[in-house]
Amino acid sequence: MRFGRKRFWLAAALSVVLAAALAACGSNGKSPPSEDSKSSASKDTQLKPVTLKILFPGDPPANWDEVKAEMEKRMAGTLNVKLNAVFIPWSDVRQKRQVALSSAEDYDLIWDNDPAQNIAAGLYEPLDDLIGRYGPDIQAVRSPELMEANKVNGKLYAVPLEVNFIRPWTFVIRQDIREKLGVKPIASYQELIDFMYLVKEKVPDITPYIPNGTEHIGLKLAGMLDPSANLAGVLSYPGLYTKGNDGKIYNLFDDPDPAIMSSFEQNHKLYQDGVLAKDALTLRNSEFAKGKAAVSTFNDFGINLSTRTALEKAVPGAKAEAFTLYKPDMKLSSTYKAGNFIAVPVVSRNKERAVQFLNWLNRKDNYDLLAYGIQGKNWEDAGEGLYKPSQDQPYAGIPFAWGWNSKLDRIDASLPEDVIALNKWERDPGNFTPDILTGFTFDPSPVANEAAQLANAGSEYYDPFVMGVTDPKEGLAKFKEAAYDNVKKVQAEVQKQLDAYLAAKKK
Questions:
Q1: Interatomic CA distance for residues 156 and 359, integer angstroms
Q2: Distance CA 221, CA 205 (A)
Q3: How many domains does the chain have?
Q4: Is residue 77 part of a domain?
Q5: Exposed (0-12), middle (13-18) or buried (19+): which is 369, by Cβ within 10 Å?
Q6: Distance of alpha carbon 135 from alpha carbon 258, whole angstroms
Q7: Does residue 421 fall inside a structural domain?
Q8: d(CA 122, CA 286)
Q9: What is the pLDDT of residues 312-330, one digit of tens each?
Q10: Does residue 486 sit within a domain?
Q11: What are the residues whose beta carbons fall under 8 Å from the beta carbon of 324, sequence distance 6 or more?
Q12: Has residue 24 been placed in a domain?
């Protein structure tokens, strides 16, 4: 008995020595540091100081330094995280993100809006185990539908950042011009068209319509004019679309859907009649806030404070209102696919701390800070799920890039009641049925060259006829001549992978 106890203590001592040695020899951040391993993500016990380098799109928000300082202050003595936030202009972010990943630059977190290719290339760390150990709050504020639908081959490689289970979309209208012209509130798409023609006739110093690019004026519009058709573009591949929730991939050359072509033809008529902006290919919805458009389109329900404020400054007395084709009683399907993600590169030396930090962000008080700024200065609490942004010092945070979730995100209480209702509707996964594509992620690597060539051809030939600049039949013919082979190859590969995915689900 005494001999056995001696052997026990000897083994225990050797175990401690071995554990310490292994902890000191972690390879490339994949073996967790011992102090981080002992820490609990939910308790935030004190850890050694670490600086996390994070890639963000766009420009830093106003008052970013103040918000960043407050975040670091809250983490001092617990997570002990400092933030090295690198903001890259939207025009360059895709290219520079790929350069950073391919050159193994020392980022710890990277925003990505389309991570499939980087996942396929093995550039992002699988997160299931790390979130299982250090991310209870990451999981708690996201629905099971969202978490499952954004896995790839059963694994989660990036935290999905989303508040909506459909992509909101709104026409924004100059309310003051509508009222001046004696037009009643817009209630249908035809009434909107009529209003734009009246603006052209009566208010010639303003452009009637500047949509925000092909996303809004193309397949999105065609699908919204007939929701039962379930029309949708296939990822970012011009010329490919789905319909009827039948699991088939279609192309506009072989199957020019009448509803889609009719929408394109109407866009061309608007352009010919001088209703749609002459420079529609290059102008975006930022022109509306400058007072240069009577109608534009936004990915929101309602009108955000920054747009309202900018418009009122640009045009004293101007007012804006929203009109959407969405209704809360619509029976729509959803893929539950996120539009933004935050990922941990495999080269990060701080993988555990990066996930612990994301977990910290996904707690109510911390999320409020990153999304809305300093409470009492930039915003006020307006009740459960609502906030009131400061008119004088609003904080236009970027929660979509590192924390977005529907359970903590607040809705602007100053929006009209019907708009608040629409926002609540789109954030409830139970209001939608799963689309047949739910959970499917396309790996573009087998057709990477064809996809790149298709993107280039799309910019040159597809975008002009979608935006109404060229006749849709003539434009489609030119696009077919330039891109038919690439469209067919990408279509075949998407269909092949989708068929395999659907077959596996049936097993």
A1: 15
A2: 27
A3: 1
A4: yes
A5: buried
A6: 48
A7: yes
A8: 37
A9: 999 999 999 999 999 999 8
A10: no
A11: 168, 169, 170, 171, 301, 422
A12: no
Q: Per the structure block, which two tokens stand in for 10? A: 């000897």
Q: Spell out a b/e string for 271-307, using b for 16 or more CB atoms within 10 Å of the CB, else e.
A: beeebbbeebeebebebbbebbbbbbbbebbbbbbeb
pTM for this model (two decimals): 0.83
pLDDT in tens, 341-383: 999 999 999 999 999 999 999 999 999 999 999 999 999 999 9
Block residue for tokens 């915003």: 379
**Cβ contacts of residue 323 below 8 Å, gap of 6+?**
170, 171, 173, 185, 186, 187, 192
C-alpha 267/C-alpha 65 separation (Å) is 44
CATH number at residue 63: 3.40.190.10
Burial of 5 (0-12, 13-18, 19+ CB in 10 A): exposed
Ramachandran assignment for 468, one of left (phi > 0), alpha (psi -120 to 50 degrees), beta (any other): left
And the tokens for 187? Answer: 């209630």
Non-local (6+) Cβ contacts of 342 within 8 A are 109, 110, 111, 112, 158, 159, 161, 358, 401, 402, 403
Record the tokens describing residue 217, joined without a space: 């004026």
Q: Which domain, by its residues, includes 352? A: 31-165+337-431
Nearest residue to 192 via CA among 214, 167, 229, 217: 217
